[in-house]
Amino acid sequence: MTLLAEIQEKLGSTGTWEIKGGVHWLTLETMSVRALAEAMNALHARFITITAYQLPKDEGMRLEYHWDLDGQLLGFPFKLAANSIDSIFDLCEAADWIEREIHEEYNLDFAGRTYEPLLLRRGDTAGVNLREVKI
Amino acid sequence: MSYKIPIGPYHPALEEPYKLDLVCEGETVMDAKLHIGFNFRGIEHLAETRNYIQVVALMERVCGICSNIHTLTLCQAMEGLANQTPPPRARYIRTIMAELERLHSHVLWAGIAAKLMGFKTMFMTCFELREKVMDVLQAISGNRVNYSMNRIGGVNRDISDPQEIMKMVEALEAEMGHTVIPIFTTSRTARSRCAGIGVLTREKAVSLGVVGPVARASGVEQDLRKAAPYAAYAEMEFDVPVQATGDVTARLLVRALEIMESCKILRQALSKLPPGEINTGEEKFRFITGTSTSRVEAPRGEVLYSVSWREGSRNPSRVHVRTPTFVVMPAIRWMVKGARLADTPLIQASIDPCYSCTDR
């Protein structure tokens, strides 16, 4: 069994891996980000980062979670309907600062955690730096 | 009774601004909180307003020490979206520049570490040596800091006389082998200030996802040049130094050994430099809609660029940069717990932090 097939089995996903732009992408239709983090921990994958995108118009946000497994870069996209997603900080402490940074840059809530300020903010207002704010 | 000592954001113990709130009992550090963001420049946001030529110049300015690495990673990501493959000679020149940058970064760090140890003669020796590395970089690129070497599809400047550069590299290697490395690895001053302090265990290093020399000094064998080779690294023979103790001595040793491995890579790359073009020669690029991600082993560890584009646009729609210090810095909290207050400046410096990179 290949490494990617092993990951897929661990995740219980029926989707297919797509190799694009240097990343092995897998879209998880039903799995939560917390279940993904638990599965990645079980595989001893190294958490790298979360990339946040503000989608055009009113389509909301997309978060891309990246892990490294034996030099392979894995990517899992999550499209957010609401302005919130579960935090994985308690499962993966490497995600602490990037969750805090995205919270401050995009005013996105990672549910289930508290935030120490990283100071990437204007005054007391979080989420003014990267997110397009409608006035 | 515990008391709190705020260090920074502007403090003689720190090379750049960040804030460390230490909770101490007597002379022992019990806990620490870190605050960053004092250099925040909104570069990722600014990148969305720059075209594909301007964005390379912009991202070169994320960091003054590993500027070349930022453009290398960015160009590799953009090449994925513009269907460009750099010619072999360009890949070799990129490797040479990346290793020279690693040399100058590690020697700079060694100088700063020596200063914090109270070893000022060594500080001067390291900075003199760093000047010689800068001379090589200048001889190749014409610049001392922002080299402007990388472009989409290759590099901007050729190495016309590799043998001349080789002589400079051999002289550097000899000097490092005779002075910097033996002194750092054998002197009592270095040992007494570094051994057993600022320990980051392997388990904690894995849990925090730390990268680069800090991870390798905690026994985590991880180097993208081996695990996911880019540029011409697949054709180079070199070792990845790993130490198990996780203390400041281990970080010192890993970087010292990496200096010698960099010289080894430089000698191979210069002697095998293939003939041919240095870039694809294209000036205008068509980007496809999508996201491309690239990773490079910078002097401080893994750098990741995730670049998104919409077809027809001249500007990227998103550039996300994950720098090594951003993931290594949280480890300082665990390194200083239980340490003597007086060792804190050296412990925090031992990760070779870069706040410009971290804040972007």
Keywords:
heterodimer, A: 135 residues, alpha/beta, B: 360 residues, alpha+beta, three-stranded antiparallel beta sheet, 15 helices, 8 strands, 48% helix
Descriptive overview:
The complex is a heterodimer of chains A (135) and B (360). Chain A is of the alpha/beta class and 135 residues long. Chain A is built from three helices and seven strands. Chain A has a domain at 3-82. In chain A, strands 1-2-5-4-3 form a five-stranded mixed sheet. In chain A, strands 6-7 form a two-stranded parallel ribbon. In chain A, β6, α3 (96-106) and β7 form a beta-alpha-beta unit. Chain A is globular and about 55 Å long. Chain B has 360 residues and is an alpha+beta fold. In chain B, the strands form three sheets. Chain B has a three-stranded antiparallel sheet. Chain B has a three-stranded antiparallel sheet with strand order 6-7-8. In chain B, strands 4-5 form a two-stranded antiparallel ribbon. The longest helix of chain B has 30 residues, at 88-117. The chains are: A alpha/beta (135), B alpha+beta (360). The interface between A and B is large, with 34 and 41 residues.
